[in-house]
Amino acid sequence: MDIVFNCPNCEQELAVDQSGSGTQINCPACGETITIPSTGKTSTGSLPTAPAGPPVAVSSINTSAAAKVQMHLKVPVHDKPAESLIGKPKLPLDAVQKGAGKRLRIRTIRRASCLENGHDLFDEKVSAFLQEVGEGNILSTHVVGYEQFDVGIQKIMTDYGVLVVYRG
Fold it and tell me: Of 36, 41, 2, 42, nearest to 18 (Cα)?
């Protein structure tokens, strides 16, 4: 016969053979040292009988004391939602702001389109665009070399520009 009792610390239901009455054990659920009571809810466990037939080889592992330990677990009941033991890390606010609802975009700025009245305004226009997009939304920048045919001088001219990949 088994003695069935609850751990006084965590209320885990435990079952121990009657020969362990009065001894101290560590609770398998909370680790506290508890004394097995001499009386408790006793249960008679009957083993199922084998059907008649040829003998079956019995493994010594299946008949050991470790294989016979039965844990009677009790599910805790709470009035309010229990605290989650494994929490997902929350995204930083800047990461939420960076990608939330924004599409991936590309902008190419050519140096030839930044020439006004003989002045090269490439750096100013690129800087203004990058400020407008915002540093947190810029994913990458790439230097671009290209060739174009200049109609005025009838020559192929080599020029450069910048390609910006951003969220916006």
Answer: 2
Q: Is 96 within 8 Å of 144 (Cβ atoms)?
A: no
Fold classification of 2-46+59-68 is Rubrerythrin, domain 2 (2.20.28)
Among 119, 116, 118, 115, smallest CA distance to 160 is for 115
Q: Is the pTM of this model over 0.70?
A: no
Rounded CA separation 49/37 (Å):
31
Neighbours of 46 (CB within 10 A): 5
* Close Cβ partners of 167 (under 8 Å, ≥ 6 residues apart): 98, 99, 102, 103, 104, 105, 137, 139
- Cβ atoms < 10 Å from Cβ of 26: 10
Beta strands in 12-154 (DSSP E): 13-17, 24-26, 33-35, 41-43, 104-110, 115-116, 119-120, 138-150
Strand, helix or coil at 161?
strand
Residue-wise pLDDT for 68-122, tens only, equals 666 666 666 667 776 766 766 666 655 555 555 678 899 999 998 898 888 999 9
